[in-house]
């Protein structure tokens, strides 16, 4: 058990995924309390049951937003273990329980009673343990699937097309090249710049379109990686990766240009570049 808690655990979430998980957690709290009516809620009128349960959900969402978006960015979670992650979640649950206690105190205009605060913490832990456990199960499944996908293609089985046509989703423009010559692609508004290298000569070509469409057109060439919302990099031109997950950068060969890596892509970039 101790060895399990010491295992590295670093779930990389996008801002959108964080927001969705927070809203789902809050919705679960509301529905659980309103449907099952524990802790004396059944003794209240139905209309009040709804609004009080809804209030619990909103308090939960508010506290989660504070902790996930104001406090968490200040921590270096690259070195976190499963035990630290669980401990952090318990701190959040305690904060939610405390906030819910004061919420109920305001609703029913009651003074501070320490044993009721402890009761609120205990009930919040009991109810919150369900979505927290489910979130860890989902996170581990996601990490396991990602590891399997990355291990599916051995390094020596590199796939390259002899030529690729990039339109970036816009049929009015066309750029043909050997994908091995592409160093990186970057987007700027509605344009995609393609940087190629042939010998010692570097060229830049710009076409109208989206990076997402260009990424789809390069999907058969498994040496390309989307490292940022604005950049796709050819791993064959990577010199080294610097920084940690909060400010990681990819340094390219020859030019020495540094490409930013978004936090949501940092773990995948670190694994892919280590295999080189």
List its traits.
5-stranded antiparallel beta sheet; alpha+beta; 10 strands; 2 domains; 3-stranded antiparallel beta sheet; OB fold (Dihydrolipoamide Acetyltransferase, E2P); 276 residues
Provide a quick synopsis of the model.
The chain has seven helices and ten strands. By secondary structure, the protein is an alpha+beta fold.
Structure notes:
The protein has 276 residues and is of the alpha+beta class. It folds into two domains: 2-151, no CATH class; 164-274, OB fold (Dihydrolipoamide Acetyltransferase, E2P) (Beta Barrel). Helix content is 49%, strand content 18%. It is built from seven helices and ten strands. It has helices spanning 2-5, 15-36, 46-71, 82-107, 114-151, 211-217, 263-274, and strands at residues 164-166, 175-177, 182-188, 191-198, 201-208, 224-228, 231-234, 238-242, 249-252, 258-260. A five-stranded antiparallel β-sheet has the order 5-4-3-7-6. The chain has a three-stranded antiparallel β-sheet with strand order 8-9-10, with no helix packed on it. Strands 1-2 form a two-stranded antiparallel sheet. Helix 2 runs antiparallel to helix 3 (46-71) and helix 4 packs antiparallel against helix 5. The chain starts with a helix and ends with a helix. The model has no long low-confidence stretch (mean pLDDT 86).
């Amino acid at each position: 058990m101790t060895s399990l808690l010491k295992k590295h655990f670093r779930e990389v979430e996008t801002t959108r995924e964080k927001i969705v998980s927070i809203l789902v957690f809050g919705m679960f709290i509301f529905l659980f309390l309103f449907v099952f009516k524990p802790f004396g809620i059944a003794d209240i009128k139905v209309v009040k049951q709804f609004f009080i349960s809804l209030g619990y959900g909103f308090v939960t969402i508010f506290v989660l937003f504070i902790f996930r978006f104001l406090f968490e960015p200040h921590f270096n979670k690259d070195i976190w273990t499963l035990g630290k992650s669980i401990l952090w979640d318990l701190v959040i649950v305690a904060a939610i329980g405390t906030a819910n206690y004061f919420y109920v105190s305001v609703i029913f205009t009651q003074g501070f009673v320490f044993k009721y605060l402890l009761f609120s913490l205990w009930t919040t832990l009991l109810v919150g343990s369900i979505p927290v456990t489910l979130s860890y199960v989902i996170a581990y499944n996601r990490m396991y699937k990602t590891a399997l996908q990355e291990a599916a293609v051995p390094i020596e089985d590199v796939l390259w097309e002899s030529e690729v046509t990039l339109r970036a989703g816009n049929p009015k423009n066309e750029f043909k090249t050997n994908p091995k010559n592409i160093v990186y692609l970057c987007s700027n508004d509605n344009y995609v710049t393609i940087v190629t290298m042939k010998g010692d000569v570097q060229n830049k070509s710009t076409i109208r379109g989206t990076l997402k469409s260009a990424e789809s057109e390069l999907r058969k060439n498994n040496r390309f990686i989307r490292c940022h919302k604005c950049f796709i990099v050819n791993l064959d031109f990577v010199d080294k990766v610097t920084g940690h997950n909060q400010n990681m950068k990819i340094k390219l060969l020859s030019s020495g240009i540094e490409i930013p890596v978004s936090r949501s892509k940092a773990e995948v970039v670190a694994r892919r570049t280590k295999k080189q």
